[in-house]
Amino acid sequence: MLSVDLERLVLDYFQDLDTSLSLKCAIQWRYGEREALVRTSVRPEDYDTPERYLRSAAAPAFVKKLKGLFPDSDKTRRKATVSKWWEGEVSCYKANQRLYPYFEHKNLERDERIAQHIAGIRKIVEELIGPRPPELLDGRHGPGATFANKGRATTVPHKISTDPTLTSDCVWFLPQFFGTAWGKYIANGVRGLSFVRGNRFTTAPKTSLIDRPIAVEPSINVFYQLAIGRALRKRLAASHGWDLNTAQETHRLIAKLSSISREFATLDLSNASDTVAYNLVKLLLPHGWFEVMDALRSPMTSHPDDPTKWVKLEKFSSMGNGFTFELETVLFSAIACYVSRYRGGAGVLGNDTFVFGDDIIVRDEVANDLTAVLNFLGFTLNREKSYIGNTPFRESCGADYFNGHDVRPSYLKEEPSDVQGSIGVANRVSATYERITHLGGRYHRRAWHRAVSRVPLPYRDCRGPKALGDTVIWDTEDRWKVRWRHSIRYVRGLKAGEKAVVPFSRFDPQVVLACATYGTGNVGTPEGGRVPVTEGVNPRDCVRSYVVGWLAYS
């Protein structure tokens, strides 16, 4: 449960916002009506100014993602997540049945107009990514867990040292695999291949009411799934100049401008990753791409309620698969471009159509037709996060705009457990205050002062600019402690002190060599020496302590 001090900080925050809704939230918070509070919906259409909207929206949003809000919250969130996951499977089953007649050579009753539309979308998919993937895939390790690697044992040397896991269809990639440094280590007979039926179901935090379902993939599968994801990114950049590495900023800019002009609508899909039906991907992808992705996907998931059982999946892939995000981008781009062209638009990605995962931006007049097509293909529009028509609000890629003004509320995700977390709470409060000030509003600062008082005394004078993130408490420039060296300004701030290191001495020399080929490992200088040596790797959440130091800031 939350500390008394954090409870009081949240109450101060609601009171600082000083609107009828925020004061209602304060009453609900004080008297324990937490679920009603986090379920509060704030509609931009109900407000006439950006400032009034932000003040109201900021109240329930502040605790919407906060862990530990309810007793037994872990069990409650998981139960809601599993229920939502099954809903996705049911949706995919229905979509698979609905789409089945549209495969070629199926002598089943179907609507020929729909068949023509599907053929048109398939043609655009090929425009975007070409007929087939590269013959050789540049596999790589991701930062997360795999089927056999959990907890802190998810570093690259841990993964190489563990029996690699794979599904039966993934055997076609073994010739490539044994040509890698990892594969050569396995080929020496120190480790053996471990075949599994699919991925492992787990969850990750999303809100205080529900988690996000995650599928943890077998290690060889995800090694090449990530390669496919990278190949899709390269094809999108080469064919249409759509760079997913910078697309978020483009989305935010279009959302900002459209909150004024209403030219574009911003659409968000509900449970998108879990509703990409198998038959949809088979229908729309070129055969060369589909064969490779189908071999790399996991056809089954461990049962959410009983890990000893398995569930055959109706979806094609999910969060946790290394190419799901890029696949979603390709599919939704093709669908949106097709509908735009059908309505007389250019239908060009990066011109009048913008897609980043399941974040979709199209011209306003196209939005309703696109919604209808998406519904037929098995997707559901998230009405609460989609904005069409004269609403002076647009949202995309984590940015909210009301008539061109940034009105993104701050979210508090967990009780801080270290000094940087405490600074982060103060900065989340400060971010809201800054936006209110920009909109011409005034506010009390009780929550901010309480948040700063929670920062341990030795670190309270680490004040600095927003650009330095949570290494400093954001404050006015006159409160910074500054020194100059070689014409560079340094600000007093927080630096990582001791870090946990998994030394390479724990691993076989061949594992260390393989890690070197993947660019993995920390470089340090031995005491009294000049030549850097590789020491080991940092696991996740490796910072053990913090120190005060000087941070470069021009």
Characteristics:
alpha+beta; three-stranded antiparallel β-sheet; 21 strands; 41% helix; 15% strand; globular
Structural notes for this entry:
With about 550 residues, the protein is an alpha+beta fold. Among the domains are: about 5-65 and about 410-455; about 480-550, no CATH class. The protein has helices at about 5-15, 20-30, 35-40, 50-65, 75-100, 110-130, 155-160, 175, 180-185, 220-240, 245-260, 280-285, 285-295, 325-340, 365-375, 420-440, 445-455, 510-515; strands at about 165, 195, 200-205, 210-215, 265-270, 300, 310, 355, 360-365, 380, 395, 400, 405, 465, 475, 480-485, 490-495, 500-505, 520-525, 535, 545-550. A four-stranded antiparallel sheet has the order 8-9-5-10, with helices on both faces. A hairpin with a 2-residue loop joins β12 (about 400) and β13. α1 (about 5-15) packs antiparallel against α17, α2 runs parallel beside α4 and α6 crosses α14. The radius of gyration is 26 Å and the shape is globular.
